[in-house]
Prior knowledge:
2 domains; 2 helices; 9% strand
Amino acid sequence: xxxxxxLCQECATQWDGIWHCAxxxxxxxxxxxxxxxxxxxxxxxxxxxxxxxxxxxxMVWTAAVIASFF
Length: 70
């Protein structure tokens, strides 16, 4: 525990093999790493560009196939 209080077994909770009080668990659960969404947006933009390119090529190919029948 980070606070060092004495606790009974009913008041403590085990996390990673260490017993913690409710206040210490609240601090541990509240701590999270904030990550930048830049790489996620770049991935979405790249995927959208790939879909746009593939869709355009598919439409042109389909139009050429249909035109060859007439």
